Amino acid sequence: MNLVTALVAITALLAVTVAAGAFIRWSQSRPQRHIAHEVVEPQRLGADALGEVATLLQFSTELCARCPGVHRTLSDIADSHAGVRHLDVDLTHRPDIAKHFHILQTPTTLVLDRDGVIQTRFGGTPSREVLELELNRLIAEGADV
Question: In this structure, are residues 31 and 122 in contact, taking their beta carbons and an 8 Å threshold?
Fold first, then answer.
């Protein structure tokens, strides 16, 4: 194999790798709604109860650099909506919870309805606007019931 062919092959491989990484990062930060609807028990997470309207469940670790910023955003959103609670679960010493919920990155945020059913999942840092939209959708659905 000559030098030009090797450089073209390396460049093509690098381009495919960068494109795949960008796609994965983009898809993880988008809300996922097609998930198995499981009822989350607050006691398993070390909490006394869930929110009356909805719960913003954040999974973090001690070494996560983005987790404190997401924590502030979720707390602020929960404080601005009546009946919405923010729970932050540190997975550093709880690998059982990480395995159960298939957490592959932190932060990961789950939006739960009033019954604890997982409605939406965000991998990475979710945008405030998308979180507000998801929460308003849940609140509107709860008002229709």
Answer: yes
State the Cα torsion 15-102-85-117 to the nearest 10°.
Answer: 110
Beta pairing partners, 108 = 59, 123
CA-based torsion, 124, 130, 134, 136: positive or negative: positive
Indicate the CATH number for domain 31-144: 3.40.30.10
Residue pLDDT, tens place only, 4-39: 888 888 888 888 888 777 666 655 555 555 555 677
In this structure, are residues 31 and 123 in contact, taking their beta carbons and an 8 Å threshold? no
Side chain identity at residue 13, one-letter code: L
Q: How far is CA 113 from the centre of its chain?
A: 15
Instruction: Indicate the domain borders of the chain.
Output: 31-144
Model confidence, pTM:
0.74
Strands 84-90 and 54-60: parallel
